Amino acid sequence: MILCDAGVLLCLVDRTQPQHKAYRSAVMRLASPLLTTWSCLTEAMYLALHRGGWTMQKQLGQLLLDKLLMVYEIQEEEYGRLLELMEQYRDRPMDLADATLVLVAERTGSRQILTLDSDFLFYRIGNQGIFDVIQVQ
Predict the structure, then answer these.
(1) Is the peptide bond before 93 cis (omega within 30 degrees of 0)?
(2) Regions of the chain with pLDDT less than 70
């Protein structure tokens, strides 16, 4: 599975984004659905509402319906780890959405990520492994 951050989710539905076509093409070539979290999807939905209204939000939701996007469910026993990550990277600072993606990488072993955020070059999976940030041209 390939992890997906909020910025890329927005880029997939916002035709005004400079990398829209490149990311749409890249996602369509992938063999499996993208994996994100509710925090990332919420952030993308908020941005979509302000950039394109309900129409853009509906396009984002359609990714779920078309099974191009799956959501990892954060469990209550994982909340502490999210706070640990946010504290560890407080100098960046790490937001909740980014913390959830690091946690998902730790839990699933997925290292590949689609993101527009350079912070994933610094974040470590399990405090040691690095993310494989997929470059889209």
Answers:
(1) yes
(2) none
Token readout for 30 is: 């992938």
HSE, side-chain direction, 13 A CA sphere, residue 11: 21
Secondary structure string (H, E, C) spanning the chain: CEEECHHHHHHHHCCCCCCHHHHHHHHHHCCCCEEEEHHHHHHHHHHHHHHHHHHHHHHHHHHHHCCCEEEECCCHHHHHHHHHHHHHCCCCCCCHHHHHHHHHHHHHCCCEEECCCHHHHCCEECCCEECEECCCC
Q: Give the model's pLDDT for residue 32.
A: 82
- Amino acid, res. 5: D
Domains of the chain are 2-133 (3.40.50.1010)
Distance (Å, rounded) from C-alpha 60 to C-alpha 51? Answer: 12
The one-letter amino acid at 128: Q
* Predicted local distance difference test score (pLDDT) of residue 107: 97
Q: What's the pLDDT score for residue 118?
A: 94
